[in-house]
Amino acid sequence: MSARPAPEFGSLVEIAERVRSGTLSARAVLSQSLDRIRELEGDLHCFNAVTEQAAMEDADHIDHLVRSGADPGPLAGVPVALKDNLCTEGVPTTCSSKILEGWLPPYDATVVRRLRDAGAIAVGKTNLDEFAMGSSTENSAFGPTKNPWDTGRVPGGSSGGSAAAVAAGMVPLSFGSDTGGSIRQPAALCGIVGVKPTYGVVSRYGLIAFASSLDQIGPFATTVADAALGLEVIAGHDPMDSTSLDRPAPSVLATLGDGVEGLRIGIVEDFLSVGSDCRDAVVAAGEALSAAGAKVDQVAIPELLLGLPAYYVIAPAEASSNLSRYDGVRYGLRVDGPDVETMNARTRGEGFGPEVKRRIMMGTYALSAGYYDAYYGQAQKARTLVIRAFEAAYKNFDVLLTPTTPSVAFPFGSKVADPIEMYMCDLCSIPSSLAGHPAASVPFALSSEGLPIGIQVLAPALGESVMMRVAASLEKAAPRAARGPVTP
Amino acid sequence: MTGPERLITPEDVRHVARLARLALDDDEVARYAVQLSAILEAVDAVRRLDTADVPPTAHPFPVENVLRPDTEMPSLDREWVLAQAPVAESNRFRVPRIMGEAP
Fold first, then answer.
1. Which chain A residues are within 8 Å of B46, Cβ to Cβ?
2. Which of A123, A153, A220, A335 is 20 to 30 A from A421 (CA-CA)?
3. Which residues, 6+ apart, have CB-to-CB distance to B90 below 8 Å?
4. CB distance A420–B1 less than 8 Å?
5. Testing the interface with B: which of A378, A385, A388, A427 to mutate, by most B Cβ within 10 A?
6. Which pLDDT band, with edges at 50, 70 and 90, does B101 fall under?
7. Cβ A339–B97 below 8 Å, yes or no?
8. How many distinct helices (H) and strands (E) make up chain A?
């Protein structure tokens, strides 16, 4: 263990304010980001592509706007990194898969568009487990990302590149997608804040689909306030996504400092059988919130344990349908064959990696004649039971607490041989995904080996405001050493 | 990792791979037979669940058909889109023969 504190960018509100007032140039902020990327990218491999030239032009444009008296927006000059499953017009978007290598999206994802409109500078596309399937980035076709806290360990996944880039101080803000924990788990393993919003709060237009009823985009940052600002910028209704909620997005920044006095907080008992360091951290988090004025109790919600098996039927089923579009016809790789069916099968056999094939197989099986009711149908009913159990719990509690992950960052190669063991990483994060609820991971403690431990705060649908208030209180109670950025 | 009961046979794997349009080699078929069996065992709690009177949930919130006014809007740039295809010809995606030779 040799992680040392790293130079910080300062708060996003501060950066943007200084850029907007002309006392700091967007170009200077970008230089700090690009220098840091140059210094560490060779060791960490956070990025599939760094778009240095375009970023410099964008920064100059922001500085020009400021000089001409225009306001570039609430993220003026803030360098951001984007998970490489978010479409960026004219910039390769690979999902870390060979099957999409070389593809140039003809449009920006809504999230990307909103970030640009808010004055943010996109510096590059970050590495992920292929098609966001995995918990370690070891499933990337381009090689894994390393954890800045210990480069012998995984950063978590699937949004591992976005998490590690913030944790290493390369960018102050990044974005990922979360289907069963792909933002929260890497945030926990990298000692930073990660937020999965309520389903429908952030548009999925231009997010390459994995499991459409579960996928949500959200921010990574080193502080709760920075993550809250990132969330506010990307949230809100979008006519381009038919599942986007047609109502005002929850406001989170304004209430961030309101504290937890009088809030009813439940520690989910059923997730306390995790590793002892993670369990101790949750208990300590409960004590800290109790000291801050919250009413903290333990609560048993055994139905949440149905989440993991239900998810590993539902998510692969949706994935097998979504990924049928990679057929060698319209984009990406084609491996030729004498007829269309052979061409399709060869293209997909060669273009997809082992985990993606495994999930397509699992999903196709669960949806196939004779097994649909036993697996997919049953999993959808289990999903109902998870949602009902949450509904009952939220009658007595405003938010719930769990460890974000069953264990801290693990060494490379330690779980790849056994898919089930890798799937277990999502144990605590999956239930909120199935329910469409928001959840955030906050760095709270260090393990005996000096690795970060995240606490997960769960809230009912559209409960982002109270969830982030609790997250901010936890952050206040946590030792500074438990969060990034760090220097590997 | 092999469970007490081998749920998925190599023949099952070949059948599912055909449905999913995935060309697999023999090693992959053997490996996926073992791994899919283990995954099915791990999700067995769901299969065994008593769900009498429990409705299924396909989506976290009710989804309704969303319509927009039928007005002309620019679509994706055709040249750009076709340039992304492995093979394009005469403003179309080109694919291998779909039907057999005429008798």
1. 306, 309-310, 313, 375, 378-379, 382
2. A220
3. none
4. yes
5. A378
6. low
7. yes
8. 15, 13
Cβ within 8 Å, pair B47-A418: no
**How many angstroms separate the CA atoms of A301 and A70, rounded?**
52
Residues with Cβ within 8 Å of residue A426, at least 6 apart in sequence: A135, A180, A181, A185, A308, A311
Burial (CB < 10 A; 0-12, 13-18, 19+), residue A374, is middle
Q: CA A307 to CA A369: how far, in whole Å?
A: 24
State whether B39 and A420 contact (CB < 8 Å).
Answer: yes
Domains of chain A plus CATH, in order, are 4-254+439-447+477-487 (3.90.1300.10), 305-383 (no CATH)
CA distance A384 to chain B (A): 5
DSSP A412-469: TTSSTT-HHHHHGGGTTTHHHHHHT--EEEEEEEE-TTS-EEEEEEE-STT-HHHHHH
pLDDT in tens, A107-140: 999 999 999 999 999 999 999 999 999 999 999 9
Cβ neighbors of A105 (< 8 A, separation 6 or more) are A87, A88, A89, A90, A91, A93, A206
Domain boundaries, chain B: 10-48
Q: Judged by CB atoms within 8 Å, which residues 244-273 of A form the interface with B?
A: 245
As a whole number, mean pLDDT of residues B68-97 equals 94
Contact of A207 with A177, CB cutoff 8 Å: yes
Residue B29, Cβ density class (10 Å: 0-12 exposed, 13-18 middle, ≥19 buried): middle
What is the tens place of the pLDDT at every residue in A215-256? 999 999 999 999 999 999 999 999 999 999 999 889 999 999
